[in-house]
Amino acid sequence: MFSYAFEFEFKFVSYEFQEMLESLPKERGWRTRHLYLFQGFWCQSKEIQAIMSFQKHFKPLQNDVVIATIPKSGTTWLKALTYTLLNRHRFDPVFSTTDHPLLTSNPHDLVPFLEYKLYANGDVPDLFGLASPRTFATHVPFGSLKDSIEKPGVKVVYLCRNPFDTFISSWHYTNSIKSESVNPVSLDEGFDMYCRGLIGFGPFWEHMLAYWKESLKRPDKVLFLRYEDLKQDIESNLKKLASFLAVPFTEEEERKGIVKAIVELCSFESLKKLEVNKAGQSIKNFENRHLFRKGEVSDWINYLSPPQAERLSALVDDKLGGTGLTFRYC
């Protein structure tokens, strides 16, 4: 058992953890003082602590579902859709107009993060009493997740957003929730960091590409969705998600309006106006109200200069060109 002796960035941590942390490459952080290069990706010290606990203790079960994203790619939306989809027989989205859990609980409470909630601070939760299918979420890159979910039946749903809008959303969000002891990150500085891979759980291109390749290799285990596709045709993509999770909609459900009801209940506009999403903290230190800004495609046009857009375009072409992974930017 570690002895907790001094405070480092967030809380008291062990000498062993501190020693390990100090051995890692580090750079200036966005909302904390530092980002550390851990297992090939950049993250904060508190995230490393949680990931280590998760990797050591998590035991996958046959029907587990894991939602994976890089931050600010539509995580909250996908959590709402997946939860409502999997629980539609318990909570009918057509008739549960006043008592549906989404009306009183933030999606992050209904589908907990592995690293931000369940294993936060190195905790080891008891997960065996959770209803099946257990549904979790993570920002962890696939390379650091795969060994923990190697069990027949476990399914991963990855939501990818175009890198331009992902950056703008991340920049707004991190400046909203950053520690008061950390100076705001300017747009120019944040953009340069982003292009160098210095973003939470980045580089973004490695995060996206690893899940993309796994979805091609094992399409029955990893579903790769695009944020822009969901915005353009949510009903078709919701049906795709339902089929992937082995809970397809019946013709009777479609006639009854279940698909449209889920779409409406989980829409950005519906979620944003709920009181539960205007106040409180579903993830420690993260105000729920900051989770809902615009949710638009092509908002980056309002922020990036032509040279910045050219730089990011060239970077995407260099890192992802020829892989088959493409994006829609407007």
UniProtKB/TrEMBL annotation:
A Pfam family cross-referenced in the UniProt record is: Sulfotransfer_1
- Uppermost EC category: transferase
Q: Which GO terms describe its cellular component?
A: cytoplasm
Entry's family note? Belongs to the sulfotransferase 1 family.
Mind listing the GO molecular function terms for this protein?
A: sulfotransferase activity
Q: Does the keyword Cell cycle apply?
A: no
Per its UniProt record, what PANTHER family does this chain match? SULFOTRANSFERASE SULT
Q: Taking every annotated instance into account, which residue ranges of this chain make up the domain Sulfotransferase? A: 63-324
- Coiled coil start-end: none
EC id: 2.8.2.-
Please give the biological process terms from Gene Ontology that the record holds.
sulfation
Which UniProt keywords are listed? Transferase
Mind telling me what this protein is named?
Sulfotransferase
- The UniProt transmembrane annotation reads none
